[in-house]
Amino acid sequence: MIGLLQNLIDALSLGSIYALTALGIGLLFGILRLINFAHGDFITIGAYALIVPSADVTARMLIGDFNIALMLPAIALIVIVAALLTDALVFRPLRRSSPPTLMIGSFAVSYIIQNAVLMMYGSRPKAINLWSDANTQVIIGDLRVPMLQVITLVVTLALMAGLSVFLKKSRYGVQMRAAAEDFRMAQYLGVRGNFVIGLAFAISGILASAVALLYVTQSGSLSHTMGVPLALFAFVAVVIGGMGSLVGAVVGGFLVGFIVTMLQAYLPPDLRAFRDAFAFAFVILVLLVRPAGLVPARNTVERV
Amino acid sequence: MTMVATERAVTAGGASAAELRAEHLTVRFQGLAAISDVSLQVERHQVFGLIGPNGAGKTTLVNCLTGFQRPTEGRVLAGRTDTAGWSPTEFRRNGIARTFQAGRLFTDMTVVENAEVTGVSLGLSRRAARVQAMELLDWIGIADKADEHASILAYTDQRRLGIARALMLSPAFILLDEPAAGMSDAECEDLMVLVASIPTTFICGVLLIEHNMRVVMGISDRIHVLDGGRTLAEGTPGEIQRHEAVMAAYLGLEA
Asked: Would you identify the CATH topology of the domain B5-251?
């Protein structure tokens, strides 16, 4: 029983990371019909921004040593700038291209970012020590809950609530929702296309920077490909949840986190190495039953 | 019908062109003319009826007057300004609004948000946009459904919402493409009472495409008849009713 509870908490924590990542991917897909595989590399940028650029094995903190009130906005700003630059340099010229072309474009961005990180920081993974205090455990009865997992969940819920309020209540949120549903109609009614797309990139940058900090604190290491598996699982979460639905992206993220954690915990040891294969098999099952995802978006038409 | 909307909506701004004019418009699709050499002028104090059989080119003409279709020849003037090269959005920003036959509402948003989008994206604050949107919903009779999802609106209410959305920010002209299509006669007449009041209530000229002859004749100040993409006649409702070619086109009589 305790074991199961412990696993559930792990699942919630991992699911939070996937859900936040999936939100970033889902938001851009909603507005731009772009499946942004470079989103994982936005996370990588946020993580590497913590340290001094060098090829040394040990990471020396740069922004990571700032006061937290300065560090959070600094990291967020760097990732936002990276995301906006990506839009300006790559996706704006491809604005009228088909979704598959956009996706290939995002692969290119992904490789460019990874190799840029490789050039600046070297290829070896680096150990990094961010907020190690957060790894202390809170003991509730027989249950040991790492503080970090609680923080991860709280931050995730706070960001989701913030995004939800923004989309519902702010004048820009209304425009983004309109653009996500019918881009041409929204544009006709006065919504500025490039503006809402830029806004979506910026928000996905904020989400990516949050994931970067949570993930680095948890894993204690940096690598130039660290964002790739995150983006892959988050993409799977978006597909399971229903392309174009933000609620779906969150549900999918938590579900993928749950599946991966439970497989890790309960698969026979011999099979654990194949955990991801089982996870993706489950995904295929979900899609066989619900091809449009768990929370299908009403209209997933192509953009102009 | 309440008229509380009126004053505030009128003072909310909007464009000032006194008339919307088409001069010798021709649109050809791969050599086939959808409309040929059509000229007309809609004024801000008028309901201007545009009628004609299916395929006469009515929607193509409305598309030209709102930037959705570039004319092959001829030009569209907003007041004295040549609109050549304007995007649909520029037409909308300059106070020339339209509705669509297919509705094209945002079904994942609430009724009032559908109207608000136009307000906030053309510069109003969220609060000001909501106030104006609610006034318009009230005017058109669906204020009680403001917080419902647009997807569950009855078909007739969807058409009403389309009109309310187009009236946001006090346009100078509104082009209604068959706003009463699919409505019962009673619903149609209710709606047309409102449409007829738009020029005086909002100081906004109306171009109305409508199939119900009795309705068009009843509320239009002028009527323009298209047939096969060409102008068949233009005049007051009385003149049109006496026009032999028009009656022939409509009733299939030999002129």
From this structure: Rossmann fold (3.40.50)
